[in-house]
Amino acid sequence: MRMTRIVNRFALATLVAAMPALAPAQTAGLSIEQRLQRVEDQLAIQRILINYHAYLDSRNIGAYVSLFAKDGEWVNGSLVRKGPAQIRELLTGLFGNTPPGWVNTESYTHTTNIQIDLHGDRATARSRHLLVKRGPDGSPVPTLAGRYEDELIREDGHWKILRRVDYPVLPTAEEWGKIMQARRAATATAERPKEPK
Q1: Does residue 19 form part of some domain?
Q2: What CATH number does residue 73 fall under?
Q3: N or C: which end of the chain has fewer CB within 10 A?
C-alpha cells in the first residue's frame, strides 16, 4: 500500500513537472499574435461544438443550420445530408414545426471531451455527447451516448462545420435507427389531420 502511494506521487510529480514543457512545444516558434489567434480559433470552435447541442435542444433550426459551412455535411452511417436545405429538412422531419416560445423541458445534451487540432483555416475536432431525457417519474435518464468526428473550415472569416460524422455508441447505430424510425412515424401520425366523425 505504501509503495503504491509512493509510485502514484512520483508519477504525479513527473507529470506536473513536464506540463510547462508541453505547451511551449506545441507553440514553438509562434509569435504572440499567432498564439493568440490559435487560442481565439480554439475558443470559437469550442463554442460551435457547444452551441450545436444548445440549438438542437432548443430546436432553433435556423441557428443550428448556420453552424454548417455552405457545403457542410451531417453524416450518420449511410444517412448523409449536405447543405443548408437538406440539413434543415432533416431537423424539421425529426421535430416538425416548433411553436414560437417553445421551451424544452424534456431533454438536454451534454457535450464533453472536446479535442481540437488546428491546421490554418481548417481544423479537426472530436467530442462525446450524451442525450438525457425526462423519465416517467421526472428523473433524468441517459438515452443516447455517442461521439462526433468533425472537420471545420474558416468560411468568410468565421469557423463552420464542414463535415460532422455522428457515431452512436449506446445504443448502437442500428438500435438508434429503429428508435428514430418509430419517432418519425409517431410525429407523422400526430400531425396528420383527424377525419371528421
Answers
A1: no
A2: 3.10.450.50
A3: C
pLDDT at 165: 96
Half-sphere exposure in the Cβ direction for 105 (13 Å, CA): 4
pLDDT in tens, 3-21: 445 434 443 344 334 434 3
For the chain, what is the domain count? 1
Question: Is residue 5, in this structure, part of any structural domain at all?
Answer: no
- Coil, helix or strand for 197? coil
| Residue 117 counted as domain residue | yes
Q: Provide the domain limits for residue 69.
A: 32-191
Given the DSSP bridges, would you call strands 122-134 and 79-82 parallel, antiparallel or unpaired?
unpaired
The Cα–Cα gap between 45 and 61 comes to: 19
- Amino acid 1 reads M
Whether the CB-CB separation of 105 and 194 falls below 8 Å is answered with no
* Residues 6 or more apart in contact with residue 167 via CB below 8 angstroms: 76, 146, 147, 148, 149, 173
